[in-house]
Fold each of these.
Amino acid sequence: MLPGLAGTVYREFFTADGDRIRRAVDRWIRESPLFTGVVDFDAAVRDPEHDVAYRVELDSGDHLHPNDAGAAAVPLVAFER
């Protein structure tokens, strides 16, 4: 069980296999030559102490969705041309 998920309705979404796949997909996106840029939301909200969780101040409380501050972790200006 991943930190902070025991007792939440989302605990079944977090497995070691699922996390391994998530990390592989994130690595591919970050390193792929197919993209001219990447907004790394994971890096913006990840807890450095528990890298499978949101930073506490960015977690909505359900450990699956960011709160408003977490959703704003990547400023919209990053998407402007």
Amino acid sequence: MGKNGNRPMILTEDLWKTYEMGSEKIHALHGVSFEIRQNEYVAIMGPSGSGKSTLMNVIGCLDTPSQGKYYINDRLVSELSDDELAYIRNKEIGFVFQTFNLLSRATALHNVELPLIYNGTPSVERLERAKASLVKVDLGDRMGHKPNELSGGQRQRVAIARALVNNPSIILADEPTGNLDTATGVEIMNLFERLWEQGNTIVLVTHEHDIAAHANRIIHLRDGRIERDEIVRQVEAQKPQPQTTEAAT
């Protein structure tokens, strides 16, 4: 983990997304180009209508651009079959949504198991991996609880555990603190920080400055264009070396 050089994990080249509204054309994305490398922590930020949700859907392979190219781990997404796209959505990208998207009648453990059920993971391995994922987000003592028995922050932790269970290349989080109070939101952002320190690549979509400030790089969108792409924390020199540091102490 943590090879920040080499090829980008995400590469977009001149992405456009155009919607036809009667005789009018609305450009949700307007020639967007950027790259994201392994173990980066990037926030995509912009006001409502800036195109950030559209861009998130394209990055997550939930939507396709009208023109331009999108590569994920060197694969041109437009050339992938439906089965290959489904595999990427299930295995390579861990989604975290504002609304948690948990099954209300299922336990935390079963909610986390779901991606493994969909890809045919054997039941014994499935249980072990789902339990390990819940422990990773500090919910080892809440595995048998259903969503209505958990706080908002705990529900989001279940959703993050579900996103982690397939060891995805990228964690894609859409307004992950939008339904949480300020204190709980800080806890969730601290969890993302810890996951990044463990080597995960995180792409965070938000309209809030204080949430975006947790990332190391912010891509600012406005009117479907990249207004600015800035490094807000210089970490390349020391990242990611948590294990080495611990071993030395």
Amino acid sequence: MNTGKVDVLLGLQWGDEGKGKVVDVLTPHYDVVARFQGGPNAGHTLEFEGQKYVLRSIPSGIFQGGKINIVGNGVVLAPDLFMEEAKELEKSGHELKSRLHISKKAHLIMPTHRILDRAYEAAKGKNKVGTTGKGIGPAYTDKVSRNGLRVGDILDGFEAKYEAHKNRHLHILKALGWTDFSDFDAVEKKWMEGIAYLRQFKIVDSEHEINNILRSGKNILCEGAQGTMLDVDFGSYPFVTSSNTICAGACTGLGVGPNKIGEVYGIMKAYCTRVGSGPFPTELFDETGNTIRKIGHEYGAVTGRERRCGWIDLVQLKYSIMIDGVTQLIMMKSDVLDGFETIKACVAYKLKDGSETTELPYEIDDVTPVYKELPGWKEDMTKFTSENQFPKTFKDYIKFLEDFLETPIKVISIGPDREQTIIRNK
């Protein structure tokens, strides 16, 4: 029997690696694109034909005409934000309703989840995680505590279910002493409009649909949100997201068996960034960090927050490659380092006791990065169309990374546009 394959594409750092652009470049080779976890806190930016798009909940394959895009059961969906995003895309000429399928088992982010998000963060004081305040954490909390409201619930007896969940949240907020409910009525009204809008889409048993697609011999690309170091199990806990961002999350977030996974594309930047609180061993607090931020436009696609910037961390990357079973690496934003005389790469951590390790430890708060310095290529690569044009110093940098990470770098991005992508023939 000719069964299709499932390939997975995910971020290997702390998110913001440029997954949206890569999905858009890879989608011509797939029949279906499916999103397997995360919520509207994840913004994927795509630029082509002079237009810039930011996707939050909709899979990045939506720009490839005729492809089915699936929002899987592992995703949490905010109906009002989804409606905004979808209408914006429809306005720019992208037809969605026949091509975007939504899992009945995906959980809904309620207006009260956002208030709970703010209340929980305020209660943590200086230990706050730095969430986007969009209710993702509380929605996943409800999911695992078996109190969640799901997309499938909007098809039957929804109003009563909604009121029961809302009242439970209000009871928790009262116990927390939370009193700020400004704009709640307006937000709830818009949220209910989002529910009505959601009903116009094809709401499916996505696990059956996905496995039937595979049985018919078609191929699926699974799109992850955020990055491996934000995984709730393997990331820099507790400064993580509330879902499994690793490759295994594609199995639980879509209902595919592990034996169906083929290629695992791991995306990394040529340097490193992080948004919000939490440890970041290679973070730069100097002019170099500011320069990387400025050249790389390192500001959150959804929040606009400044991203923290640092040199590439190969200890962390090696860990992510191991956890995810990465078969091919994709390096983004190489062009941001075009002007640097010297490039640094973290090759080990010095621990508190003075010893060194190349394995990611349980705590990374107070490790000191050990750097290897490499010569920069000092050449504008943004107009290149082939790897043959790469300067020798850049080729040496790629080889150094491949040798250290023991994984081939197959795709290199040299700018934000779809065209500024070089597929290596090696």
Amino acid sequence: MDVAPILSALRRHKVAVSLIVLEIALSCAIICNLLFLIHERIQRLQIDSGLAETELVRIQAATARQLEGGEEGIDRTVSLEYLNAMRGLPGVSGAALATQVPFGNSSSTSSVRLTPDQKDESLTASVYLDGGNLLDVFGSRLIAGRLFTPDEYRDLETIEGTDADQGVPAVILNRKMAERLFPGQNAVGQSIYSWGSQPTRVVGVVDELLRPNGFAEGAYTMILPVRKYTPGMHLVVRTTPERRAEVLQAGVAALKAMDPGITIFASDTMSEMRSSYFRQDRAMAIMLSVVVLGLLVVTALGIVGLASFWVQQRTRQIGIRRALGARRVDVLRYFQTENFLITTAGIVIGMLLAYALNLALMQAYELPRLPLQFLPVGALILWLLGQIAVLGPARRASRVSPAVATRGR
């Protein structure tokens, strides 16, 4: 179709055209950035913890004797009693004590160096202490090396209380940490320095093990064969997905039966922990989606309103074109082409505004740079929206009768 008559008609309505172009441009700029923010939130919701989440429950509890302080070794005794109680529950395939778990409220970290005389740390990693079979219970997938051997385990009290700096003999890294420390190399057999001045040998690498929180601070985690017994340790229990609620209820009941004065700080499934942790991200994604939908509706109404106004103003001209032989499909195509040109102008300006808006957000909120692929996505959405929005007025224009349209205004 020859667009010259269309451009000529648009120039005669500069104010109206400019307003709708500006509306489309602003919508494009905002929508592109909102789609990016929604994508970021959805990615966080889908982050891999490295755990068999659908098979895990956790209970956090402590006895009054622990909380009040008591005889030496009470923490160890009580923790092991609780652990044995969990292992004896029907349907339980494994249980372990954990100092922290993914999607928890706190994270223990430690700096990591590659040489003993290194001044600046190579990275900071979140530290999981494994008192025995923790990775088996977690369901973490070992991709290199091996698990800890019995002779590699140490008691935290011994490490902290000894005069000699014995350190920790072995460590297991997650894949991202291994790749960061030893790019292009096999991490197994290498050494790092973290706890004390003695080297710690890397004996294994797991595919993934998420830090408990603060994902933006780094994706690096390591597991040390250190036994720690403190009040409120996480009792992580593995069972089948369909028996999680049953095992969780039975576990709490068993602990209360053992110790009527027990304090239960938390009892939930790992799936519930994930859902609770990402509650704000999920709400933000929904809210931003509603904003995008609202912008699309407002933009569509603007296009419909302008197209309807122009159909009303051009009724006589349309009738003349029909009388001269224009088909209904020609009239329909005319309005759709006209809208396509207006939308394209708005999108071009909107893409520039989207980039400028992203730069402002990067400076104000430390957001990442807007990936270029979101620009054509936003453009395609607005192009489709424009064609759909103008379809109704365009069809009404195509149904104008030549006889009625030429009988004056």
